[in-house]
Amino acid sequence: MPVLGMLRSTFAQDQPFAGLTIGCCLHVTAETAVLVRVLTAGGARVHIAASNPLSTQDDIAAALAAEDGITVQARSGVDRETYYDHIHRVLDARPDLVMDDGGDLVNTLHEERAELISGVRGGCEATSSGAARLRQMVAAGSLGFPMVAADASATRRMIDHKYGTGQSVLDGILRATNTLVAGKTVVVAGFGPCGSGIAERARGLGAQVIITEVDPVRALAAIMQGYRVLPMAAAAPLGELLITATGSQDVIGARELAMLPDGAILANAGHFDVEIDVRTLADLAEDVHPAIRPHADEYVLADGRRLILLAEGRVVNLVAAEGNPAAVMDTSFAVQALALAWLAESAGFAGDEAVGFAGAKPSAGRVLEVPGAIDAEVATLTLASLGTKIDTLTPEQQRYLESWRQGS
Ligand SMILES: NC(=O)c1ccc[n+]([C@@H]2O[C@H](COP(=O)([O-])OP(=O)(O)OC[C@H]3O[C@@H](n4cnc5c(N)ncnc54)[C@H](O)[C@@H]3O)[C@@H](O)[C@H]2O)c1
Question: At 138, is the secondary structure helix, strand, or coil?
Fold first, then answer.
């Protein structure tokens, strides 16, 4: 992860988090460990809980816990009560900054630990689902500090959501099923960056891809890229492999489950395990054959149809594969680390000047875009790590582009 490596050196020198406590709720994986070390190199004490109990790599959690300045509250496979207990223990550290992935930390903080809100200077949310929850909090006037929506950054939507998730979701499905994708009809629900990346990779493997959408602009984009677009009610009977990537719930619900063909494989790439109605599937099943392969359960319905559910309806690329490749997380986590450093500096408690990227200043109780300068910084570091050089504008070109007087 060369970009984080470069940031680690800069942060070790600049100490943007000197004296600060950062509370994290992230997938506890090897890549996250590299991010946590960047934060501690920058002077932070880090308390981290898992953002999904099934994605915790216990060896990584143990290795991190042995390091100075890091407290880990995570173990693979814990129940819901322990999961939230871990989040509370991170909050017990009274964080100055938070880094969340899905919103459970920030939600718990506001709902159950409101006395801590005034001590939090701001934070960073990693996913679109988490950012959507934050926007609802803003609409309700409930968000107590600024949160940067890292998922919406240009570099992240391109590299992480589209190319990273696109590849690793197919990887998870292939590991869990070893199915042949070529010639299959694959239904992808949602044509955001994740869905479009998944669709592109499935098509690359030879699938006939159908997209379902609720947003007319995105549906049109799918058509223009050569996909067939159908409502789910029309797509479900055709789907041999169905993948949800919407951030919404019950995208494959009772109505769709009734229509799916025998042998259909169901996988979810969205953050929460609500996109496939697993409870209704279990209710409809006469028989369940758990783990016919690792992370694949077969549900036999009353009419004899067999449906294969992957990863219990949870994020398939994290549960059945290894999540995004390290190179992808390198850029994503660089955005998050720089966003936190921006908040720390702008809040004026790491130095006496509010520095901020491009003069931008975070404000309280808002969901903030990642400043374009952070994206530019991450892209510059990534290009440097790839050994790629690009052109720069000449002073004449710069003047031409900035002038409104020079026409044709
Ligand atoms: N698995 C991963 O590694 C990973 C990585 C990044 C994001 N995510 C998650 O994947 C989901 C999608 O991410 P994104 O960045 O593409 O989000 P997005 O919000 O940009 O796109 C989601 C799309 O789904 C559409 N949609 C919503 N409800 C729908 C429905 N009922 N039927 C069909 N389409 C519907 C929306 O119109 C939108 O175009 C989110 O939950 C996000 O948190 C997962």
Answer: helix
Strand pairing partners for 99?
24, 124
Q: Is the CB of 268 under 6 A from ligand 1?
A: no
Strand arrangement of the beta sheet that strand 285-293 belongs to: 228-229, 208-212, 185-189, 241-244, 265-268, 306-310, 296-301, 285-293
**What's the CA gap between 96 and 357, in Å, rounded?**
20
Asked whether the CA dihedral 218, 243, 172, 39 is positive or negative, the reply is: positive
For a ligand 1 pocket test, name from 31, 101, 128, 332 the mutation site with the most ligand atoms within 8 angstroms of its C-beta: 128
Q: Which two tokens stand for residue 393?
A: 């504008």
For 159-176, what is each residue's pLDDT tens digit? 999 999 999 999 999 999
List, for the chain, all residue ranges whose pLDDT scores fall below the cut of 70: 347-364, 406-408
To test the ligand 1 pocket, which listed residue (27, 194, 209) has its Cβ within 8 A of the most ligand atoms?
194
Contacts of 144 (CB under 8 A, 6+ apart): 110, 114, 117, 118, 120, 364, 365
Closest atom, ligand 1, to C-alpha of 317: 1
Distance in angstroms (rounded) separating the CA atoms of residues 261 and 237? 6
CA distance 320 to 295: 6
Look up the pTM and report it. 0.82
The residues that bridge with 149 in the sheet, in sequence order, are 125
172 ligand 1 Cβ < 6 A: no
